[in-house]
Write a structure and sequence with these properties.
- This protein has helices at 2-27, 30-37, 42-51, 54-64, 70-75, 78-87, 90-98, 102-109, 114-123, 126-136, 143-146, 160-169, 195-200, 224-234, 254-272, 285-311, 314-319, 322-350, 356-387, 392-422, 431-455; strands at 153-155, 179-183, 189-194, 218-219, 238-242, 248-253.
- The protein has 456 residues and is mostly helical.
- The strands form two sheets. A three-stranded mixed beta sheet has the order 1-2-3. Strands 4-5-6 form a three-stranded mixed beta sheet.
- A hairpin with a 5-residue loop joins strand 5 (238-242) and strand 6 (248-253).
Length: 456
């Protein structure tokens, strides 16, 4: 209860703050706007920019462009980031991107058009520009795009004392780092040491003696989704990135890996609903239409298949009109059961808990669940058909159709995403549309087919 109240208070506070920001923008009061925005975290400012409309956003940026820094740019949703950057003076953009690590700059650049990319690249120092351009040369959604070039490296033969002296004397260090990476003379990583162990060990201790057992590397061309899985599976804090020859080229930290996991989860949810993997509340009308209309068309086709099945039993429905009222019950129960299995399957595939080795066991489990659930609800619907409608045989038809559809629904929820993955498609890619089609078609066919055979 207290948590719910605190959450409501936060939402109310955020709404009041947004109203105050819009009022300051409308009044052209730069001082009041700065007083409202400057104490906020970069993510909260990004939220405000995403929640308001384009004209209000332009007015806010014109009034407070000097307050936009690199952290805010990196937090802004990619759907409006280019619009924001184009609205800012060049000197503001230049100062903002200079504050960022290379991985954050790459994250901003990869979603921009070429002119906007060049504008930001021109603002970087030569060394930073080269590092960013090299990162952009790696495939999209790869570890090379995700990594940062700023790394803390020590020769593998150093002692703790030598590492500490070097760290204290270094002119530039990353703002955040978790490990000192050990390398051989060919710049190939051989291990890493946490800062905690560096600070707690005696100065004479060789670094290799206190290196972490969790050490592993990833190739720069590795898929970022695979990298995020490694972080989650092995509880990593950071991971060195190597090129084709095994030489160190960068490092990925846990915050970037968790962002990938979050994005993957969000994309799976959106794709299951058939609205595209990158939809956002900040998207315009046309972008939203483009993301949704293909799967609406697919649904239209599959709905016509269901209608075709129903049409084959028009004579049966004409003679027993009550069937038309009962059909949605069978289809709805199957749809819900299929969605339950589908959600579990897609998530298990994403986390690699569902594999070829255990697929049959999961399929058998879902079949058993479908049969048991079907029997349970068959009893309810069978009694309803008999007692409420006074038609014992209709109750039997309802019961049998319920068993068939819930069993098929449970199996479809597992088998459809497995089949899509086997064919090379994203298992979350509108699997819900196909599962619903299977449950509707089977439910209508089973119910109306049994009614035709048993009631006429």
């Amino acid at each position: 209860m207290a948590e719910d109240r605190a959450e409501r208070d936060e939402e109310a506070e955020a709404a009041d703050r947004l109203d105050s920001v819009l009022a300051a923008v409308e009044a052209g009061d730069a001082g009041a706007l700065s007083a409202l925005l400057e104490p906020l975290h970069a993510a909260d400012i990004a939220d405000i920019l995403e929640q308001i409309g384009p004209s209000e956003r332009q007015a806010l940026l014109a009034l407070w462009h000097g307050g936009i820094d690199g952290e805010i740019l990196s937090e802004i949703d990619e759907s409006i980031r280019e619009e924001v950057i184009e609205s800012l003076p060049e000197e503001v953009v230049a100062e903002a991107v200079r504050e960022l690590d290379t991985d954050d700059v790459v994250d901003i650049l990869e979603d921009l058009e070429a002119p906007a990319q060049e504008r930001i690249l021109d603002a970087l120092e030569d060394a930073d520009r080269l590092a960013v351009e090299q990162a952009l040369s790696y495939p999209e959604h790869s570890a090379g795009r995700l990594m940062q070039r700023e790394v803390v490296v020590a020769p593998e033969h150093w002692t703790v004392g030598e590492a500490i002296d070097w760290l204290r004397g270094a002119e530039v260090l990353p703002d955040q780092f978790y490990h000192v990476i050990l390398t051989d003379p060919r710049m190939k990583p051989t291990g890493y040491v946490t800062l905690g162990r560096v600070l707690s060990a005696a100065r004479a201790t060789p670094l290799r003696e206190i290196s972490e057992e969790s050490f592993r590397t990833v190739r720069a061309t590795e898929e970022e989704a695979d990298v995020a899985y490694i972080f989650n599976q092995y509880h990593l804090i950071s991971c060195p990135v190597v090129d084709a020859d095994g030489r160190l080229v960068g490092v990925i930290t846990i915050d970037d890996a968790m962002n990938v996991l979050d994005e993957e989860h969000e994309e799976d949810m959106l794709r299951m609903a058939g609205v595209g993997g990158e939809s956002s509340v900040s998207d315009g009308v046309w972008e939203t239409i483009k993301g949704r209309i293909p799967w609406l068309f697919v649904n239209l086709v599959t709905a016509n298949i269901s209608a075709l099945v129903i049409g084959q039993f028009a004579g049966t429905i004409g003679q027993i009109v009550i069937l038309a009222a009962l059909m949605p019950i069978i289809a709805s129960m199957g749809g819900i059961a299929g969605t339950q299995s589908l959600t579990i399957a897609v998530r298990a595939l994403a986390t690699r808990d569902l594999t070829v080795s255990n697929a049959m066991r999961v399929v058998r489990r879902e079949a058993a669940v479908g049969v048991i659930n079907g029997l349970s609800f068959a009893l309810v619907m069978g009694l309803a058909g008999w007692l409420a409608l006074g038609m014992p045989m209709l109750g039997v038809v309802l019961a049998l159709a319920m068993i068939i559809n819930l069993c098929v629904a449970a199996l479809a929820g597992i088998l459809v995403p497995l089949a899509m993955e086997r064919l090379g498609f994203d298992p979350a890619l509108a699997s819900g549309t196909f599962v619903m089609t299977v449950t509707d078609v089977v439910g209508f066919f089973a119910f109306l087919g049994l009614a035709t055979v048993m009631l006429l």
